[in-house]
Q: What sequence folds into this?
């Protein structure tokens, strides 16, 4: 994902803009990272350079929880424990 894409992205749930970007792995583009809506506390992973900004009902806990656990030390703490739709308990 290119960083300039953040200029046009909005939360698919509440349409909030701008969103927060956290980069975990980057070469020419962001390979892995996190997009966060500070308004509704939803988080969206960036995997294999693709931002996965799906509504809650299309997300799979079996796919998102391993990502959260892998990068939890790089996530904002409020997202780790209060984020939507999935969080650590």
A:
């Amino acid at each position: 994902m290119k960083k300039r894409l953040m200029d046009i992205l909005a939360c698919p749930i509440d349409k909030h803009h701008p969103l927060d970007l956290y980069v975990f792995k980057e070469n020419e583009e962001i390979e892995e990272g996190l997009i966060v809506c500070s308004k509704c506390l939803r988080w969206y992973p960036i995997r294999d350079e693709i931002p996965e900004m799906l509504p809650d009902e299309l997300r799979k806990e079996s796919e998102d929880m391993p990502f959260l656990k892998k990068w939890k030390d790089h996530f904002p703490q409020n997202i780790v424990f209060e984020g939507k739709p999935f969080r650590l308990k």
In short: The first helix runs from residue 61 to 71. The first strand starts at residue 20 and ends at 26. The chain has a mean pLDDT of 97. Residues 3-82 form one domain.
